[in-house]
Amino acid sequence: MMDSVMEIRENQPAALTTAVALAPDLSVGGATVVIMAGPCAVESYEQTRLVAQEVARLGGRVLRGGAYKPRTSPHSFRGLGREGLEILRAVATEFDLLIVTEALGVEELPLVTEYSDIIQIGSRNMQHFPLLWAAGEQTKPVLLKRGFMSTIDEWLKAAEHIASRGNEQIILCERGIRTFETATRNTLDVNAIALVKQTTPFPVIADPSHGTGRADLVTAAARAAVAAGADGLLVEFHPDPPRALSDAEQTLPLTAWPGFRQQVAAIAQAMGREII
Ligand code: PEP
Ligand code: MN
Predict the structure, then answer these.
(1) Which ranges carry the DAHP synthetase I/KDSA domain (predicted)?
(2) Does residue 142 lie within any of the structural domains?
(3) Could you give the number of structural domains in the chain?
(4) Is the residue at 131 inside a domain?
(5) Which residue from 175, 177, 245, 247 has its CB within 8 A of the most atoms of ligand 1, so it is best to mutate?
(6) Residue of the nearest CA to atom 10 in ligand 1?
(7) Domain range enclosing 98
(8) What is the pTM of this model?
(9) Alpha carbon 32 to chain centroid, angstroms
(10) What tens digit of pLDDT does each residue of 210-240 get?
(11) Which of 63, 133, 233, 264 is the 20 to 30 A CA-CA neighbour of 34?
């Protein structure tokens, strides 16, 4: 067992990654695989608090949750907006968590920056250049999701748009791309994770929830991402997934959180890393 672990480590290409600090004692892109977990959308104080409590209970440090939701249909739940940000901040403070949440447009960016610790730019906005430039003027880290129909080159150029305004604290997020496959919502591009780790200074995390669209595949996809070198994961959990107001079918119940962490930790260990 030890031999094979050593072999894996020795065969790793030298990492170029420049870690992005989230807190004095936490960064993405270093030895630790950072798991960012939470609901797809902030729906209520109680729902968000239950998730945050469980995330913190096992040592998680980053809570995800959308207050502004980019929905394909305008008739779907589009998030609580400012109230959602206030809920996130209240529960994150209670459980000493950091927050990653999406800025849907330039208009929301100041508020999202004020309330969050990591500014998320969503897949649909990867080439929303005014938003990239505005995020590039902030002093907080930016999580840049890959557009679901974007090439790796377009994704990296989008990151450069952010960096061109001075903010180089960029974390890339592979969240699955649209392919001919219909059995899954998207195809998690594990190749992309390994490639950007080898060719860019940016840490890269994976989103196995949107990357698969299926709760029964999320843990396997997370394991694969960490094996490919991902520096972290962004994953959706809900106290009662069938009742989730968005992405119910890809959301794991809180009861799956311990097993999810255990499995990801086992792969991380084989890669010479730990999880948080
Ligand atoms: C999300 O993570 O909340 C989200 C909307 O994902 P994406 O932008 O990847 O679709
Ligand atoms: Mn979602």
Answers:
(1) 29-263
(2) yes
(3) 1
(4) yes
(5) 175
(6) 123
(7) 28-70+77-275
(8) 0.96
(9) 15
(10) 999 999 999 999 999 999 999 999 999 999 9
(11) 133
